[in-house]
Amino acid sequence: MDEHEPWQLTGSAAELYERYLVPAITSVWATDLVQRAALQAGERVLDAACGTGIVARRAAEWVGEQGAVVGLDLNPGMLAIARALPPPSGASITWHEASVLAMPFSDATFDVILCQLGLQFFPDRPQALREMRRVLVPGGRLLLSVFGPIEHNPATHALAGALERHLGVDAAAIKRAEHGLADTQELCDLAAITGFADVRIDTVTQEVHFPSVREYVRIQLAATPLATLMRERPREQQGRLVDTLMTDVGVALQSHLRDGGLVFPQECHILAAHKVAG
Hints:
By secondary structure, the chain is α/β, with parallel strands linked by helices. It has a domain at about 15-150 and about 180-210 and about 265-275: Rossmann fold, CATH 3.40.50.150. The chain has helices at about 15-35, 55-65, 75-85, 125-135, 155-165, 170-175, 185-195, 215-225, 225-230, 235-250; strands spanning about 45-50, 70-75, 95, 110-115, 135-145, 195-210, 255-260, 260-275. α1 (about 15-35) runs parallel beside α2, α5 (about 155-165) packs across α10 and α8 (about 215-225) packs across α10 (about 235-250). The chain is globular, with a radius of gyration of 19 Å.
């Protein structure tokens, strides 16, 4: 893990993330975030902490060939997947490997910055927001999303509880960290103290679908930083661990089983703000 951002994927996890988690979760939120941004043809857009680039690809379609999109992430594995995917229609995308805490861009480079489900993982959130403000043009727009309280996200809540019961508190720390910026007042204050104006936060719930509880657990253990829990164990223990967690999570999510699969609500806070001119 890098000292800048603790949410990292290695090995095949980035490929599995793109294959399974992007269609099920992050593409849903990316569509919502980009629509809220109301991107205009020709605008210059930064996707900060872009991962495998779903937000950047959505943005490229909106700003068109006259626009420009940059995806920035610290994780080379995620960027390798982003670069390998077929380019979208619209703007070309440039990918940069760097930290959001020290972005390699000049002042006032972008009209819009989008940051999906990343701010909660940055160890210095004010610095990240100051950097975003620095590279925005005066009057530029910031839109970012973070997960709401873990109690409002039943699948994560159930998995974190199962991890704690069977593997200890440390095992669940990354899942709980996903919800580490769930307080809307804290989020609003962060944007205000770092120089953003017209701060607005909307709380939104989307419906997420997985084929089964088992698939949800397997994907979480393979395509997120929880994959380290599996690699640290002998192969013969890995299947038993999945079975144990699946049974525990299945009990907690019984009311969310329908239509032959797992269907659960997921809550995010969406922040929109502007950089004041001058």
